[in-house]
User: Fold TPM domain-containing protein from Pandoraea terrigena.
Amino acid sequence: MTNVRRIWRHLLMPHWKVRQTFPRKALQAIERAIAAGEGNAIGQLCFVVEGALNWAGLLNGLTARERAIEVFAQQRVWDTEHNNGVLIYLLLADRSVEIVADRGIHRKVGEQEWDAVCRQMEAAFRRREYEAGVIAGVESIARHLQQHFPARSIGKNELSDKPVIL
Assistant:
């Protein structure tokens, strides 16, 4: 059975709420954090925030994890030279964070570490510290990328550092 409360949360999530939660200044700070995090690694980070799911997704019971996997493919996070792209996906209506990591980095870090980063970010979001929560998550992931994929020279930036709002 479809969760009626969840449907209402999604239906009542206006697009402007995402912009209110992540104003231009916050998005710029997140973009700088991503660039800095990638500066010492050859790994790639992508941050995507989506206010709410569409009707079809809601009626089909699409989970935040399933949507994150779709977004991972749509944003081509999987398409990096070393298979070390990492997506941070925030579904604002659910206040749910999902990390989807390509096989190169996931094999070295593992699900427990990604889950710990998600819980850390969700705790910050409960305190309404959205910008700080995302930046802390980016910094945590950057440490993993630097440990497992350190930069040997200036590499190319395969994914845009700019946060994506869907």
